[in-house]
Amino acid sequence: MSALAPAVPHLTGHASPRTHGVARRVPWVPIALTSAALAFLALFLLVPLAAVFVEAFRKGAAVYWKAVIEPDAVSALQLTLLAAAIAVPLNLVFGVAAAWAIAKFDFRGKSLLITLIDLPFSVSPVISGLIYVLVFGLQGWLGPTLAGFDTQVIFAVPGIVLATIFVTFPFVARELIPLMQAQGREEEEAAAVLGASGWQTLWHVTLPNVKWGLLYGVILCNARAMGEFGAVSVVSGHIRGLTNTLPLHVEILYNEYQFAAAFACASLLAFLALITLAIKSAVEQHATAA
Amino acid sequence: MTIQVQNVTKRFGTFEALNGVDLEIQPGELVALLGPSGSGKTTLLRVIAGLETPDAGRILFNGVDTTATRVQEREVGFVFQHYALFRHMTIFDNVAFGLTVRPRATRPSKDEIRLRVMALLKLVQLDWLANRYPHQLSGGQRQRIALARALAIEPKVLLLDEPFGALDAKVRKELRRWLRRLHDEINLTSVFVTHDQEEALEVADRVVVFNHGRIEQVGTPDEVYDHPATPFVYQFLGSVNVFHGRLQEGAPAAAYVRPHEMTVTRAPQAGSIAATLRHVQRIGPQARLELQDVANAGTIEVHLARDHFDSLDASEGELLHVTPTRERVFRHAA
Fold it and tell me: Could you read off the pLDDT of B287-308 as tens digits, one per residue?
């Protein structure tokens, strides 16, 4: 060290003009990229979001409030929350089961299962809705049989729930599979050798290791479940107060030129999305801190 | 406990990991499964543990067929190569896991579990780490915790997969001596997998040498080192010179000679080989000579005592004569 010490000031003194030159040079590339990204965000995300709230309050708070507490709007909000409340827990269970099977076990048809899980992502939501109409509709395969039991799926609440489940199918599984595969099987094997049953291993070893990824998947799943339009639109039938979800309600109001009311209901959806985003970033922060 | 492996075969797709393996392990023995990677040693360990099902053959514990017994019921302790500690649990909970997951009827009380876990942590000399998490520990500490966790269920047999593979050289040496002492203390039938011949020879009572899914030789460290049964064992355990030639009846064969089992002289001897000294490396009390066979230009490695070499007073480039003091001849496989 003592031999190096006198050399250090000499070295820095020598190098300083050059380092200054580098520091003075404006870092154009990062600045350009960052501003491009921010401008894009502002144009395509912030402006529309602001527009939703501005338009919603254009005719004053009274009109906004009236549009929100109107019975059809309340029923649409209830149906949206109901569909999400059924679809999200079901896809949570399904997603964990599928991810566990795919990441921790070897079996025939595994790649087929992975492809099937991705299917809702690759198929247009309108087509997914149409499939349900073809299967459960009155002219469909199972429609007449179900009608015999006095059960209606299409143009009724069950259809909306089914379509929502289908569209939000992949979120939890897709989030968990890479995470579980990266973690490997050794901890599960260790648990098995120590005498733990499959359930004990799942509860005490696997799930605690993926809890943040799981929560993240559930949040994304929920966001999509509340916002889904295409598939639900096909199976809903748009019966006001009965089979309208919030996104469908917004569309109807807009088509009837009730812009303020349409934006008021849209602001509800935007608000739900913002809450979801806030929870998501809180989860992410916690996950990176843990 | 006696472990019997009978004619076990295991394939992964087209790869034959184990090909008709027979092995018997005596109670209280510490056995090393030694071989290059892909030779089947880890697969055999996993088959014994019940983590893999053999395609054919049987595993017997104390004479009882356990081939179909589930891994949870085999009562084996298994130490994984990368330890596989539960990352979200404290060290205490890791070691206690095997006891806390027992059904209520056989589960010890909370106080009893605490006593047993702390006793095990003391045994591995890490009781002060009970409340830490695995990622806060060094590799050597994790290794010992993995061992304590495996011992917590009072296994009938202890299986270790490359137990020292992920550690640096110094910790590895300390830990393997410690493992040997621990084994002598608790006297549990133990099997460990390694690709490091020095580790196997130093720690084990018996060494099982694997190659291509088959056992090449089983024996004490001295037996496998001094009397290798096959050319593979000769080459895998330490360095060796190979001299190709023909037997008297004309069959092609090769003589295997360890570098330290040769003498070097200035004058030709009966059966000596003429070779040019190419390079000398003096390492402590030893001189390592690299010579070139005059007849076929092959390289011969000889290890001599330093003073023996000094008394030769040879320098690089000189012609010397090498005589094997001990050799083993293997016929070439037809």
Answer: 899 999 888 888 899 998 988 8
